[in-house]
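Dear colleagues,

As part of the handover before I leave the project, I'm documenting each prediction I ran so the next person doesn't have to rerun anything. This entry is a single chain, and its sequence is reproduced below.
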Amino acid sequence: MNIDQYMQTLGERARSASRAMSSASTGDKNAALLAIARHLEASRSALIKANASDLATAQANGLEAALLDRLELTDARIDGMLEGLEQVAALADPIGGLTDMCSRPSGIQVGKMRVPLGVIGIIYESRPNVTVEAASLCLKSGNAVILRGGSEAIQSNQAISACIQAGLAEVGLPQTAVQVVETTDREAVGQLITMPEFVDVIVPRGGKGLIERISRDARVPVIKHLDGNCHVYIDDSADEAMAISIAVNAKTQRYGTCNTAESLLVAKDVAESLLPKLAQAFESHGVELRACEESLRIISGSASSNVKLIAATEDDWYEEYLAPILAIKVVAGLDEAIEHINHYSSQHSETIVTEHHPRAMRFIREVDSSSVMINASTRFADGFEYGLGAEIGISTDKIHARGPVGLDGLTSQKYVVLGSGQIRS
């Protein structure tokens, strides 16, 4: 079977399965999620073994450190997958609920019902845990899904897929509700994004190049974000210890994620006292600092002489490093911080550290990003941390879904009209 025929078959099966999933009971969907969790737990050693094979191949092929980190499937990450399945099973089922019912002068009642999107195609790189997260959310929201993971994770994804298939079969739901593309041929992606008769929406998760290609070539709607140039702004009223803690965590807790801080803005009135301490903290983590002229002067003249420090260029303010590199700029205050963020940000996640309530409120109103925070690390911009159970991805679009995309982001609404014989005159 060639790629065209193979993808056509996956699409036909997914469309058929989506009709069954749209009417599946909450009990059956929850039972499937918990059955998948049991099969993953029972197959833990097989998952680790398959992942080790992927890691070895990826290392031999020179995959960069950030992607190797995303690819690795540890016991802790398997635990996270299991917890995510349990959380999604515990969430309220969004499908079928009636909202906004109101009576009209004609006597009819008009409201809305939440319904599945249908068939979702998800294209992602490196992270095998996305296979479980995506499947769980699509199943709970009554959708079918076609998953196309990166070639570097093919063994891991197939091992996970076997557990998902077993869980679905155990409760009598169609196994074709979740299909993992088994070929690493890149042409499969081209087919998946141009099958509007079978696929209702595409969700790309990966590097900027992948997402740009999908956005350009897709013939179905796309839920996406291109990159994560996230900012921490330290206001002149910030608690110093809190500011250092949040800035360091936002940058160093993990380097290879889209919610990692890539730029740090510091108010001018606290820069002289705070920047040397921040530089020392980042030095202990081996973080290279790309500093504006004022930051360069302050840090160079401090005791942190061993910090990796170079002058920032205009490109640094736009950059998503996914590495131990941080751009630092001294700003006059809140106005300049907001202006800088709205100009250079990728509209992903930004945070302000401040004790000044009116400034905090201005920041969350005026910063135009999908997640805006007060006194918290940008690393919290995550479906699991937001209580969504898991996420299908993070959207920086402004239509349909924005921010971490959980169950509601994988549904739509239709109007429902209740009458008692009314006719329009």
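The first helix runs from residue 3 to 22. DSSP finds 14 helices and 16 strands in the chain.

All the best with the project,
I.
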